[in-house]
UniProtKB/TrEMBL annotation:
Similarity section: Belongs to the intermediate filament family.
Composition bias, Polar residues: 27-38
Residue span of region Disordered: 1-76
Source species taxonomy: Eukaryota, Metazoa, Chordata, Craniata, Vertebrata
UniProt keyword Cytoplasm present: no
GO biological process: intermediate filament organization
Protein name: Peripherin
Amino acid sequence: MSLNRKTKRRGPSTSYRRTFGSPHPVSMTSYTSVSSRMPSGGRYGHSMSPMPTSRLSASSYHPQRSSRSQQPQRVSYDKVDFTLSEAINQDFLATRSNEKAELQELNDRFASFIEKVRYLEQQNGALTQELNQFKGQAQQGQPNRATDLFQEEMREMRRQMEAIGKERDQYQMERDNLADDLSQLRQRLDEETQKRADAESNLVSFRKDVDDATLSRLELERKIESLMDEIEFLKKLHDEEIQDVQVSVQTQQLKMEVESTRAPDLTGALRDIRAQYENIAMKNMQESEDWYKSKFTDLTESAKRNNDAMRQAKQESNEARRQIQALSCEVDALKNTNEALLRQMREMEDQFGNEISNYQDNVSRLEEEIRHLKEEMARHLREYQDLLNVKMALDIEIATYRKLLEGEESRSGISQCYYEPTPRDKGKKSVVIKTVETRDGEVQRLLEKKMHQDSPFAFLFFFVIFLQVVKESRTEKDVQRGKDENDD
């Protein structure tokens, strides 16, 4: 009989183990540390304090029950078999110690579940409040703080990118202006180069003309020398002819004088011939001198003109050379300026590219943070759903225990528990949980516990106390029944 009762007594704990697994005893300090780490905000922040009081009341209630349950019963020593009584007492003590250990373990696990439910309800309330806040902001069109920060950062980046774009447009305009100036300078350089080529070609032609003029001058000088030689030769020939004519005239005069007697006078004729020849010689000499002078004058003027043209060509060549050198220096300076501007433009493009890449990285990082926040929100929603599922499971379990307690109460009728509301405050409603243990119509034990009516743990605490009372009552009944059987 005791074995069957023992098996029946351990039925709820075995089903509890099958439902929730093997028990793990947890000390009260761990609950205190967990509860101290829990956030104080939330919907159930005011229900954090009743649990240690309930635990202390339950623990303070155990020694009374154990002391009362261990009070010796008056039995007649002549009817008691001490060996069997000692065995029964040992079995009872072992069973009682096991039941106390299991009950303590169940109390610890139940307290841990209560703390966990309280923490989950706090988290649930906080998440619900945050979710409602997010929903209200979404319905009102108000972005959250992360969205505000993201939008502010995006606006700042857009302003910076607009400023950078304006600077880039300005630098591009300056680059275009410099490119136009460079193209104009290149055009001028091409024109000056063409002018220089034309001047060099003119200089070459002028040099050729100068060389031709020099050759002509040399040829004319040679002609002049030959003409002077010819004039000298003609003079000598003329002098010789004059001498010959004079000699011939003298001989003729002599002959005429000899023959004067016989011939007429030829002196006048000779004089006329001499004068005629002298006139012809003077005329030829004058013509030769005039022709020589005219030729010499023409050659001198031509040489002078050629010298002037050559001097002007040299001046133009020197001027073109100076202009070419100045333009070359200007082109080199413009090339250096262009290279510096191109290098500066490349550096600015690299800098702007790095800044744009940094801005894109910041945008990507902010988008990643937004995605993480969305994932975290989804995770909180999933945890909230899981907590709701756990709460529903706990509600089902509580309903199951309630049914078990109601069945046990209706079967044994050894304990009565009821709620007594005590309206102490207007804002808060408290409930007095009274546990009354009766035996043969006499009140054996009375336990009162005041809890807030809106606390979610009032019924759970009542359930624990009621379970302890039922177990102790059944244990005392079994002991009494075993003693009665031994007496029989």
